[in-house]
Write a structure and sequence with these properties.
five-stranded antiparallel sheet, 36% helix, 552 residues, disordered N terminus, 15 strands, single chain, alpha+beta, disordered C terminus, Hepatocyte Growth Factor, 18 helices
Length: 552
């Protein structure tokens, strides 16, 4: 039986003649019912009369993506050619959806997996090598299951839905799913699949260096010449980018740059006490299944041992470089946290070295020096560290005298002496002695000015007084908070301009991408302001070794 259903591909179309058809031929073993958007009786009959190769063979047994894609194209052409005139126009508009091979497999693929569940308030902890990431936010557990079933190839066998997010894993070391031992997790809904997993295709490497391609267009350009001054190389990179490429590279999820043959880049990875996995860190595999997980900084700092702090940073940085060289990680890590643990009720105290400015300063210097610098190559940095959260950030959520503050709208009102002696001291050490390549501006305001739009903090203090020569990223959503929570300016374009000109080069979020174009059109900023931010960003990436190895 073939079910004719519009709901299968979530097209909100309604035609009065919505029919069901049946096939005389038996479906091949292991094939799921083929559901497609057939909008009238003629189209439904067409599917049933389609050649056996088209109906079953290609969809169920295609050995490569091009064959499946061709089958999808042929099938959708059949639909369009034979549909009634009232449906043909709609089908033509939907043709791109029908052409897509992944969608065809989703609708009519063969899976050797059988999913079961739901298991309510139960969940598994997937190991780093098992975790396959997030399928995004889903409105229900059923939607999470449907998304997991639709993954092609079928290389995962566990899905869990919690807090409207859907996560999946490929578990191969725990035997049959019926024997899995689950943890009690209130609000979680789990699904498991039995059967043979498809081989996981090798992912594209996270990093690509076009300078190493001697036959490519980039290798002969100045930005690839390791012998040229770094500022000239960076200027060459920025000069070749068009405006769209420039704006798309002002966020943590930076777009591919066709003019430089550089792929997508993600600035956000975590490494506070070891390299994170999943979407905010490295990709584990059989070749690199593990990385070292160290004690939290609050514990490591209790040793009062500078040598240990440096060795910890060096080990994490070396592992970061190893994953990067393997193509399984990006190169910029947002660690260490060097805020003061000044409030015992603050939930993030474990991420900090402690409450003392001197101790925290020394930890910052040693961790960053170990993380970024490898004696084997003093001319480059092995991985990029980022001291955060700049500055006076140690409050998440509090209600006092009936007034509630959160980290997103709080203003840390601090005397100049306390600010310099306590809250800025670790960052000054991180910059001046640690020579860190990155700073992160925080959610809060400092004396009424949002940190990410605070030109005194970012420009006068960090760059001019301390000599900071790296990039500044916002905490995630902090530029948006400057407008939506702190109400720093009257328009989002003015906030984007204020943050960019203050020195926030990288917006973790989408605020710059959404509002910098309008800020340019309104002459609130110039393309030179955008270029200055990009130059600081790309200078860090060049220091991470984008060059011809033969010239180094």
């Amino acid at each position: 039986m073939f079910t004719v259903s519009l709901h299968s591909i979530s097209l909100s179309l309604r035609i009065s003649h919505h029919t069901r058809g049946s096939a005389s031929a038996a479906e091949p073993s292991g094939c799921s019912s083929l559901s497609l958007s057939l909008l009238d009786g003629a189209a439904a009959k067409l599917l049933l009369l389609a050649p056996e190769r088209l109906r079953f063979g290609t969809v169920c047994h295609a050995g490569n993506a091009s064959e499946v894609s061709r089958a999808a194209e042929l099938m959708s052409s059949y639909f369009i050619a034979t549909a009634s005139s009232s449906a043909r126009m709609v089908l033509q508009r939907a043709a791109p959806l029908l052409y897509a091979a992944p969608l065809l497999l989703l609708l009519g693929g063969c899976s050797a997996l059988t999913w079961s569940g739901p298991l309510v308030d139960k969940a598994l902890t997937c190991a780093g090598g098992e975790y396959r990431g997030s399928l995004g936010r889903k409105p229900s557990a059923a939607a999470c299951l449907a998304a997991a079933e639709a993954v092609v190839p079928a290389d995962l066998n566990y899905a869990v839905w919690r807090d409207q997010s859907c996560y999946v894993c490929a578990i191969t070391t725990r035997g049959d799913p019926s024997a899995w031992v689950y943890n009690k997790v209130v609000g979680a809904v789990s699904f498991a699949a039995t059967g043979t997993l498809a081989p996981t295709p090798a992912p594209a490497p996270d990093l690509h260096n076009p300078c190493l391609d001697g036959a490519g267009a980039q290798a002969s350009r100045k930005w690839c010449d390791a012998a040229a001054p770094i500022d000239e190389r960076v200027a060459d990179m920025v000069s070749r980018m068009n405006v769209s490429e420039k704006i798309s590279n002002l966020g943590n999820s930076a777009g591919a740059i066709g003019s430089l043959d550089l792929p997508h880049y993600n600035w956000w990875s975590e490494a506070t006490h070891g390299l994170a996995t999943g979407g905010l860190g490295v990709r584990n595999s059989a070749q690199a299944p593990h990385q070292t997980n160290f004690p939290f900084p609050i514990t490591t700092a209790m040793s009062f041992n500078r040598t240990l702090w440096r060795a910890t940073g060096a080990q994490i940085g070396t592992e970061a470089r190893a994953f990067m060289n393997l193509g399984a990680a990006y190169s910029t890590y947002w660690a260490p946290v060097i805020n003061l643990a000044r409030e015992p009720r603050w939930g993030r105290n474990i991420e900090c070295p402690g409450e003392d400015p001197f101790l925290t300063s020394e930890y910052a210097v040693q961790f960053v020096q170990g993380f970024e610098r490898n004696p084997a190559d003093p001319a480059h940095i092995q991985a990029s560290a980022c001291c955060k959260h700049f500055a006076a950030n140690s409050m998440e959520h509090a209600t006092e005298a009936g007034q509630t503050h959160t980290r997103h709208d709080f203003s840390a009102n601090i005397t100049q002496q306390d600010l310099v002696d306590s809250y800025l001291a670790p960052f000054q050490a991180c910059v001046e002695r640690g020579r860190v390549s990155g700073l992160m501006c925080s959610y809060n305001a400092v004396n009424g000015v949002p940190a990410c739009a605070n030109d005194w903090l970012l420009k006068d203090v960090a760059r001019e007084a301390w000599g900071f020569d790296g990039y500044v990223t916002s905490d995630c959503g902090a530029v948006s908070d400057a407008f939506n929570k702190h109400h720093f300016t009257g328009t989002p374009e003015a906030t984007a301009a204020a943050a960019l000109r203050a020195g926030t080069d990288n917006d973790c979020g989408a605020f710059y991408k959404q509002h910098v174009p309008a800020a340019l059109n309104q002459s609130l900023i110039s393309i030179a302001d955008v270029d200055a931010a990009l130059a600081r960003l790309f200078k860090v990436r060049v220091r991470l070794l984008y060059s011809r190895l033969t010239s180094a």
